[in-house]
Specification:
- The protein has 189 residues and is of the alpha+beta class.
- It has a single domain, classed as NADH Oxidase, CATH 3.40.109.
- The longest helix is centred in the middle third of the chain and has 24 residues.
- Helix content is 46%, strand content 16%.
- The chain starts with a helix and ends in a 5-residue tail after the last helix.
- Strands 1-2-4-3 form a 4-stranded antiparallel beta sheet, sandwiched between helices.
- It is built from 8 helices and 4 strands, in the order ααβααβαβααβα.
Length: 189
Amino acid sequence: MEEFPVLDTVRQRRTVYRFTDRQIEREVLSELLEAAANAPNHRHTEPWRFIVVRGPALARLGELRVALQLERSARDGKPAGNLDAMREEVTQASAVVYVVQHLDPDERRRGEDYASCAISAYILQLTAWERGIGARWSTGQLITSPKVRPFLGLADDEQPVCYLALGYPDEVPRPWRKRSAQELTRYIE
């Protein structure tokens, strides 16, 4: 029987919400980022940039997450929710990797480059899984808030696409039922 390691990794990958205390070595992170930098992209613009938040900076990112939620709560007049859980979304990870898009001056290329950055993030997620490292892909306030920009040291021509909280899984969620490709596909012949 033929082996399809990429297909197996795609099918087995899960979003991990809880991590152990084991830290990901810097060399392993570097290997994962090298893989992510091999994403395909139109016109070879290589629009992806990576910002790795780890160590004491994770605590600062966790406090930023809480501050943004408190602002949103006050603005919307709704309860803030479980602030400790929101803080732990980032602080429990061994590292948080932001995938950032360099914004091409050509507006048309920006859409193509965004897709390439998303592919890059998925390659990072898959290669991490292959190494026994879990990931949680996130967007939201830690991507969209202007207050994140100075924390990350973003230039005017850079925009976060997502961040991945990475760590060794404390628990791996069971798979959920997804619709088959047959249900989602239509052929035009």
